[in-house]
Amino acid sequence: MNETPERHLRILLQSVAKRFALLLGMASQLPAIASTESPENSTALEDSWLEVVRQTPYWESQGVAQNIATIRTWVLFSTGYCSEPDRHILFDRRGQFLAYIDNADSSKETVERLNQTRARLVAESRVKLWSPGSTTSRGYPFALACHQPFVDMNEAIDRLTGTSEEYRLWGTWDGMTVGAKDQPVSLIKLFEVVYEHRKAQGRFSFPDGTMATFLGKTIIESGGQKDALSRQAAQGIMQLRPKVLNDCQVPEPYRLHRMVQVDCALRLVEQNHRNLKEPFDAVFGHLPLKKREALYDLLLTQAYQIGVGRAIDLLTDSELGKAARYFAQHQALFSPEDILVGMIYHNVGRTDIGLRTLYYVTDTRLAQKELCASSSMKTHRWCQTGNSAGKY
Questions:
Q1: Contacts of 100 (CB under 8 A, 6+ apart)
Q2: What is the pLDDT of residues 264-303, one digit of tens each?
Q3: How far is it, in rounded angstroms, from Cα 71 to Cα 154?
Q4: Using CB atoms within 10 A as the burial measure, which of 47, 74, 153, 280 is most buried?
Q5: What angle do CA 125, 128, 132 make, to 5 degrees?
Q6: pTM score, whole prediction
Q7: What would the mean pLDDT of 156-175 be, rounded to a whole number?
Q8: 295: Cα separation from own chain's centroid
Q9: Per residue in 85-130, pLDDT tens?
């Protein structure tokens, strides 16, 4: 056999190629390394943590809702590992707490500290893999800032229950009157007047238990603040977008009027209910009654945040509905809360569904529970009839 220089070169190149392929195979099993590349690579970073979501099996949703409720309690109430506000907590794809860090002096340094902690968690076999985050993209394990300046649960509850004079109100709207100038009332009373008036007119058919959730939603949306305004131009105590206010035919000068906001928001809940009920029953109609009612209330709450169209897609779409169909088939293994969280988690990254969407219903439930535990609300009929966690 002729040993020509060309043959030697070919053999050498083949050997290098084999070694390179072997290294690639090994690298695919190793944790990701924090990138210092340019911002245009942020999509690749985003895909890496989303790959964790996509690879999570549906059965891992068992118990996830309670795990998330635990870490969100720490965040919303500044307790547990969030008793110090200048921290971030890290958790895995099942919502299980893993570690916390104290924030650094800058956002960039805090991200570097988070990524170092992620790498350490892999080295300690606490998680199997990690992906780096940046100041503009998430990483894995997931991280939450303990400092949530937009949430003051105690003040929000005081605002709703009217514990002080400054939080009480009076007014009229579309044939409804609440309180009087010399006898102002609480926001809770306003909710009652609007709800009972419209229900007597035959305009509301959603379950009565929805109202307790609606109160919790008000706390999470705005803290009950009349002038609340989001970056997405949602405004008022119910954080209604201009399009919704237009649909309710609300004149511009009245868009922050609290009776108007509650009236329009409840009309939106009714509209969502009328559109959501049939597709929901088609997928989950076989669930035991109490469990079915609890799950429906959770999904109706989610529809307020993501829109009823996307909520229906979570039930009926060929891709987005895969999780719902799995949970419907195996419903006996999951609580209503786990099913709802699972439906959202397995669709994170699709149609603008993000981690904030994952927390929304949990936060609403925590706010509802705290409100209903207050002295002025614990015997209220809405708190008595509202859906809550339990045996199904």
A1: 81, 87, 88, 89, 90
A2: 999 999 999 999 999 999 999 999 999 999 999 999 999 9
A3: 18
A4: 280
A5: 110
A6: 0.85
A7: 95
A8: 15
A9: 999 999 999 999 999 999 999 999 999 999 999 999 999 999 999 9
